[in-house]
Design goal:
By secondary structure, the chain is α+β, with helices and mostly antiparallel strands. The protein is built from 24 helices and 21 strands. It has two domains: 187 residues, Penicillin-binding protein 2a (Domain 2); 351 residues, Beta-lactamase, CATH 3.40.710. Helix content is 38%, strand content 18%.
């Protein structure tokens, strides 16, 4: 057998083994060094970074929406409240499969397509770990169903939030307005930082106009959560600042009386405090319940409102534009006297119509056969003689009528602290040339002289006008809000009043008193016996034109074609405190239809406020179509 021992070299094998062992040890030492360096880097150098990341997984910042400010009337009656409601929201990052989660929730709750569509839009705009609302105002049954199935609904949250509530419902729907869910159009104008955690904003009325004051300031809290996203504890909290409360000049009792006086009729009532300019009542009927709009009104209910011929969503007091009819006569009477167009002793003959020189067309008086001879400005206002104002209006010209009409608040917004006010129309030569591309004709002036033709006014403008008559020219903006929080709002007066000699004020106001108290007054029977002095003016506004050779016959017209009835008034004569304007759509006669409404409101005012106020109420509030003739019969 061959001897292989001579082929072995123990020394060489020993050196090779040592070299391999040394290399292996070196590699192990290097790897151990790298491991130690990495461990040091992670645990020492980057400790804070990873600690922050870990905290982000379990500590989150949540926005705390503030409580919206409340709204009270002048006597502390709550008009807009906050009630608790429960909202179903989803934190997308905590949901393993959003589509499956929505399907699971859909098995428990019946979703509307609009809810899912809105949710999908909000998901695209959300921030990480920000909850996205899916269903508002959960019922107790829905809350229970979610609670029972919470173990399989990862990412679902049910949170309590304050929801707007309007205790008086339709009585103040147009005034207070309502809040609604923030939509895409709102997002373009709203500051996202102020609305973190909030899903509602003011949509109409005072809720919209005073949104900044009512909203408040958002708060924050740092919360620690478990792996399923459930809040384990609150680490830090900055409380939200509630919105400021609004205290109104408005008296909810007068508001209800105005609404009850209108009854089933369509129309509007505006009552102003002549001393402060505060709005005591602002009623538009028919109205609607704003509460369903807060969390989302159903399509069927909304279509019922928008499709109604009565237009309950339309604010007639602020946006309704009507010919003021004969309620404008006191203003144009002052215009004729102050401009020197006629003297106080000027008289006209009224045969029942008026004709321009060399013209065949007859502008009819409402009284068939006319008012007779020697009609003065007093007689013209008391008996509402159209022919007198046809004559003086033609003599004065549209430039004078436009000038004085504008001074008394017609043709421009009043500046009330409510959104969407209509401007009305006090026509002029320039307006017709620009809007119609035609020159102004004398017949246009005659129509405007009795508040018809192109002229349009809102009930609010008519109330402002009669307030300026009552105060003999004091120009003051109407205001809804008396105080924001604890800060009173001062009455807003314009730089100058309407400067007209006292003797002209005397004769026009005496005539307005005669409308109510004179035996020939157009509103004497309607007003009846009262315990105070009142000045007023009836009016009728045509809805459809009557041909030259035709007579107005209500029996041949549909309800919607009948004349509008108007009445303006203030009381008492000696020291006016309240001014009222009323319009009853298709009510026909201002004397028999509109005047009793104003009487009921003024009666109630003196019942509640028998003595003049010198500011005490404010202090208490903070504590808690063209026509050719008129056929007016009043």
């Amino acid at each position: 057998m061959p001897d292989f021992s001579t082929l072995k070299n123990p020394q060489w094998e020993s050196r090779l083994y040592a070299a391999r062992a040394s290399f292996t040890l070196l590699v192990v030492v290097l790897l151990l060094g790298v491991l130690l360096w990495r461990y040091h880097d992670l645990q020492i150098n980057r400790h804070q970074d990873f600690a922050t990341l870990a905290d982000n997984n379990r500590i989150h910042v949540r926005a705390l929406p503030p409580a919206r400010g409340l709204i009270y009337d002048r006597n502390g009656v709550l008009l807009a409240d906050n009630r608790p409601g429960f909202t179903l929201s989803i934190v997308v990052e905590r949901s393993k499969n959003l589509a499956q989660l929505l399907a699971d929730i859909g098995e428990l709750l019946a979703f509307k397509d609009t809810e899912l569509a809105r949710f999908e839009k909000l998901v695209k705009r959300r921030r990480p770990y920000e909850s996205v609302p899916l269903r508002f105002n959960l019922s107790e049954t829905e809350q229970a169903m979610i609670a029972v199935n919470e173990h399989r609904l990862s990412g679902v949250e049910v949170s309590a939030q304050l929801i707007r509530d309007y205790p008086l419902a339709n009585q103040l729907a147009h005034v207070i307005g309502y809040t609604g869910r923030i939509n895409e159009r709102d997002l373009k104008r709203l500051d996202p930082h102020r609305y973190k955690g909030s899903h509602m904003t003011g949509k109409t009325g005072l809720e919209k106009y005073y949104e900044d004051q009512l909203l408040g300031e958002v708060g924050y809290e740092n919360v620690e959560t478990n792996a399923r996203g459930r809040v384990m504890r609150v680490l830090e909290r900055t409380d939200p600042v509630p919105g400021a409360d609004l205290h109104l000049y408005l008296d909810s009792r007068l508001q209800k009386i105005a609404i009850d006086a209108l009854g089933e009729e369509r129309g509007a009532v505006v009552a102003l405090d002549t001393v402060t300019g505060g709005v005591l009542a602002l009623a538009s009927m028919p109205s609607f319940d704003p509460n369903p709009f807060v969390t989302g009104i159903s399509t069927k209910a909304y279509k019922a409102l928008t499709g109604s011929l009565d237009q309950p969503l339309f604010d007639r007091a602020l946006r309704g534009q009507y010919p003021p009819g004969s309620t404008i006569k006191p203003v144009f009477g002052l215009a004729a006297l102050d401009s020197g167009t006629v003297t106080m002793g000027y008289r006209v003959y009224d045969p029942g119509y008026y004709q321009l020189e060399n013209k065949k067309h007859k502008y009819r008086d409402w009284k068939r056969g006319g008012h007779g001879s020697k009609i003065s400005i007093y007689d013209a206002i008391v008996q509402s003689c159209d022919v007198y104002f046809y004559d003086v209006g033609f003599r004065a010209g549209i430039d004078v009528l436009h000038d004085y009409g504008t001074r008394f608040g017609y043709g421009h917004k009043t500046g009330i602290d409510l959104p969407a006010e209509a401007p009305g129309l006090m026509p002029s030569r320039d307006w017709k040339q620009g809007a119609r591309g035609r020159v102004w004709y004398p017949g246009d002036t005659i129509n405007v002289s009795i508040g018809q033709g192109f002229m349009l006014a809102t009930p609010l403008q008519m109330a402002v006008s009669v307030s300026r008559l009552a105060t003999r020219g004091e120009v003051r903006k109407p205001r809804m809000v008396n105080a924001v929080g604890n800060e009173l709002t001062a009455p807003v007066s314009e730089p100058a009043s309407i400067d007209i000699p006292p003797r002209y004020w005397d004769i026009v106001i005496d005539a307005m008193a005669g409308v109510v108290g004179d035996l020939r007054g157009t509103a004497r029977r309607a007003i009846g016996k009262i315990d105070y002095t009142m000045a007023g003016k009836t009016g009728t506004a045509q809805v459809v034109g009557i041909k030259q050779d035709e007579k107005y016959d209500a029996s041949k017209l549909a309800k919607l074609q009948l004349d509008h009835a108007l009445f303006i008034a203030f009381a008492p004569l000696e020291n006016p405190r309240i001014a009222v304007a009323v319009i009853v759509e298709n009510g026909e006669h201002g004397s028999s239809t509109a005047a009793p409404v104003a009487r009921d409101v003024i009666n109630a005012y003196f019942k509640y406020y028998p003595e003049p106020s010198t500011g005490e109420l404010a202090e208490e509030a903070v504590a808690p179509g063209t026509v050719e003739s008129s056929h007016e019969s009043g």
